[in-house]
Design goal:
Blueprint: H1 2-16, H2 20-43, E1 47-50, E2 54-57, H3 68-97, H4 102-136, H5 138-158, H6 162-172, H7 187-201, H8 203-207, H9 209-212, H10 214-224
Antiparallel strand pairs: 1-2
Helix pairs in contact: 2-3, 3-4, 3-10, 4-5, 4-7, 6-7
Amino acid sequence: MADQLHHKNSVGRDDATLPVEFIAVCVVAFIASVAATIYFCRSMCCEMEMPGGWTMSMMWMRMPGQTWLASATSFLLMWLSMMVAMMLPSALPTFLKTRRAPVSLSVMATGYFAVWVASGTGIYALGVAVAAAAMRWEVFSRAVPVLSDASLIAAGAFQFTSWKTTGLLRCRSPFGCASVCPERETNFRLGCKQGMACCLCCAAPTMILPKLGPSNFLSRAKNFH
């Protein structure tokens, strides 16, 4: 009985002790990411008229004198700011449940958003490939509106699949997966697991990013999560 009371009191102290430093950093990161998202969306608002009656966002193109590395870096910075602004409010409580030190939580958050950066790299490569094909072949360009509509329909249908349900359950579980033992995981790896669970849950809005563009993605994606 004494051991049970001691354990209960210890848990109570752990719950009451919040990593204030980490929370403060998260608040600053959230505010900065919102400001950066607004900036990037305004700076990448230009679009090009394409055969087939649609417009292509210039975020898939290099600016004059810009290298592909610089273009990719600019896109990934925009992508990261969007992901931090959208995902940090829901991911923060999950991080805090691990009851780790502020430095450990920071490493965990780094792993979480590293997964989102990796997914952004794939999105950028796909967007550049589609843009290059549309610029090269008029037939493909005229088919883009149909392909875009099909992707929206597929994204909507995805929301009713068992894969979506599984991803949502993992994303809402304490640590990204009901079977994971957080005390046996490294900080970075645990963050990566939670990030992969959330990426799976958000596969539908991620898939329709090339159609919506950066200015609409953030607001639309919240409705899909």
